[in-house]
Amino acid sequence: MKEKSILYHGSNIVVSNPKILVSGFYKDFGYGFYCTKFEKQAKKWALTKKDHHVVSIYEYQTNDQLKILVFPLMTDEWLDFVVNCRMGVKHDYDIVEGPMADDQIWDYLEDFIEGVITREAFWVLAKFKYPTHQIVFCTQKALETITFKKSIEL
Q1: Would you put residue 20 in left (φ > 0), alpha (ψ -120 to 50) or beta?
Q2: CA distance 20 to 81
Q3: What's the CA angle centered on 106, arms 103 and 110, to 5 degrees?
């Protein structure tokens, strides 16, 4: 059975027709269209933008035909996947979902990549004070699973 849920995207514009944008820097789960199941987190994303602060809201319906990778928690597998994506290694998933390496975590991640800290030290430092979530739609087929519902300006 296909499940439906609500997702949020923080930006400086209304994003009624999401696209996969390839930017100049790599993200946690590679290139794609990033959303979250946490409205508060999307608001934080929107408030980092200049001029306008907009949260777009979508309905997401799962599709079992897509190749989906889910990390319920930060694990060694999550860490290795994020490191690879941040270093530009491509993957073939349609959708990737899991915890987010926020700015503080990213500092520790860079230290781990550069060999400044060990994997064990990363895990000691990377304890989250609050839960995070991101889901990235990496292919056009994946984008077809979300439907724009509305937006709110902050």
Answers
A1: beta
A2: 19
A3: 145
